[in-house]
Amino acid sequence: MANGFDSYTPLTQATLDAAKKAGYTFAIRYYATNTSLDKVMTRDEAQRISDNGLYVVSVFQDFNNDYKYFNTSYGTADGKAAYNYAKNTIKQPSGTPIYFAVDYDAEDSEVKGGILDYFTAIKQVFTNLGGEYKIGVYGSGAVCQYIKDTKNLAQFSWLSMSTGWRGYQSYLDGKTWNLRQIKSITINGVSCDSDESSSLGGGGWKL
């Protein structure tokens, strides 16, 4: 098991120093369609994280917090945006995952409807673009179970810290997750969430 954190805020040297002192070994940072957003990791930041000895884990999220953001069209657009940013801007190593967020407690019919369509489209895009990256899913236990373990549309899963969401405890106990989000924390004054990787590995990488 390794301890890490996810942050919407770009990581400065001071924050990385504090994270290392606290024993964290990986940082989860964001991609998005609008690459000018503050939450989006730049190539320089990815290099800085790597140079400080921490692994990077990448997650794509625009909004992704409501069912209206999940369908084939969004999956195609998000898949292309994430893959191309990882490959052409970040130079993320091939063979590593990009997680895609389902940041709400989706109903079973939604998981088997638009969310399934969304990840099916992402898989098709990744295949069409060369298949250099693996797919990860972030969300409830029910979402992670269905998308990764039942439908095999993702190779990595990251369990949300929202314990009241569907399937949380059973997915946690099943231990097929790669990452699990634990609780809100502060590092160097920056609001983050703590995370843990399982023995399966969380898909971290370095430049």
From TrEMBL:
SUPFAM superfamilies: (Trans)glycosidases. Residues 18-168 form the Rv2525c-like glycoside hydrolase-like domain. This is Rv2525c-like glycoside hydrolase-like domain-containing protein. It holds the Pfam family Rv2525c_GlyHyd-like. Gene3D superfamilies: Glycosidases. It comes from the Bacteria. The lineage of its organism: Bacteria, Bacillati, Bacillota, Clostridia, Eubacteriales.
